[in-house]
Write a structure and sequence with these properties.
The chain is an alpha/beta fold and 143 residues long. It contains six helices and five strands; from the N terminus they run E-E-E-H-H-E-H-E-H-H-H. The protein has a five-stranded mixed sheet. The chain is globular, with a radius of gyration of 16 Å.
Length: 143
């Protein structure tokens, strides 16, 4: 399972710049299904802050639990901070819909994901897995 955030103004297009995005739609994606988990809003006062250092913490907080963030654009400093937070930024072309990115990600998950995506999946355990199974598999012990 992959959890991805989409920087969107209208909920349909990936149409927001990371540093000024008012909301992130959070999706859980697997080879078999896609589910909109929630919409996370960024406080309006942080959205209008002139200083990047004041805008980014709220956006980084909004990405908690996500492995990927899809944006219309992102500055180099913000991209570095997102990457340091272990979230992979993915810039899309103008006019790209959330649905088309979800379809592409699902197609990739059905096949052999590229190394960077496999790494993201390994860093983010499946939240639907039973906690006992996760503990046993990560510890290498017997049930």
């Amino acid at each position: 399972m992959l959890t991805a955030a989409f920087a969107t103004v209208d909920g349909i297009h990936v149409d927001a710049h990371f540093g000024y995005c008012p909301r992130f739609d959070i999706y859980d994606i697997s080879a078999e299904s896609v589910r909109l988990r929630e919409t996370r809003w960024v406080a309006a006062d942080n959205a209008k802050a002139d200083n990047e250092d004041h805008r980014l913490p709220a956006r980084l907080d909004a990405l908690a639990g996500c492995a990927l963030v899809c944006v219309a654009s992102i500055g180099p400093g913000a991209a570095a901070r997102v990457t340091r937070a272990r979230v992979h930024p993915l810039k899309t072309d103008p006019g790209t819909t959330v649905g088309s990115v979800l379809d592409r990600l699902q197609t990739v998950l059905r096949g052999t994901p590229p190394p960077w995506l496999r790494k993201l999946q390994m860093l983010r355990p499946d939240p639907s897995a039973h906690p006992d199974q996760t503990a046993h598999s990560s510890a290498g012990g017997t049930p």
